[in-house]
Structure formats: structure tokens, C-alpha cells
Fold this sequence. Notes:
Layout: H1 7-11, H2 14-34, H3 40-51, E1 55-56, H4 57-64, H5 68-80, E2 84-89, E3 92-100, H6 102-122, H7 128-145
Antiparallel strand pairs: 1-3, 2-3
Amino acid sequence: MSDVKGAAELRATIVFNLGTLGAVAADRFAARVEALGLKPKHAGLLAALDAGPAASQQDLARRLGVAPSLVVALADQLQELGALERIRDPQDRRRQVLNLTPEGRALLSRCADAARSLDDELMADLSDTQRSALEQGLRLLGGQHLTH
């Protein structure tokens, strides 16, 4: 008898199933936001800007856990699309604050529509009870592990 676990045991794990489904969901979401001229990271930055008060690029990088240079590059691209504006902070002229524009809010709304549509597709075979349980479980796990 081998000490190596079999494929069936791997496929029975939450981690493997979440990873596999996550890859499928990420690819499909990327394709949908690409139709809007965005990448998922752009959608994440739009959502972060919408979630809190106007933030500097440094603040956003810390909040998102990414390199400041990535936020700068994404913000440059979103500014070109008219989705955000940079405003000098009157308290500190060296600091630029990022704000969503009406176009940015419209793009964020379209990203949310794409995500909800994909949710419906991915969960089409689940009953309302199963869907609710999955949503609650994922929120609980996300709250425990993604905010630390």
C-alpha cells in the first residue's frame, strides 16, 4: 500500500475544489471585464475606491496589499479611461488623492453586473438553500482568512 494519497482524495478536499473553481471563475470574470477594457485588478481598484473615502495611491496599495507601483499603473490606465481623477491633497500638496468619476462608477456597476451574471451561471444547478449556504460559508471563510 502506498503512502501517497490518491486523486479521489485530492478531489474531495475543499482547497482543491475552491482552487479549481476559483481558476474557472477568475478566467471567466477576466474575459467579461476585458470586454469593458479592464482587467480584474482594475475592477478591484475601482471597488476599493468606492468602499472608502478618497485615498492616496500609497493608502490604496497598503489597503490592497500590493506594490504602490501597481496602484500607480492601474490608476494611470483608469484615468485614461476617465474612470478616476487625481486631486492634490490640500493638506499635503505632495500627495495625490484618487476619486471615482461618474464614468468610474458606471464601470464599477458594469463589473458588478458581470460578476452577478457569472454567479448565476456558476450556481445554476444549486437550490436556493444550497446557494444561500454556499454564500454564507464563503463570507464566513473570507471574513476569517482574507482580512488578516
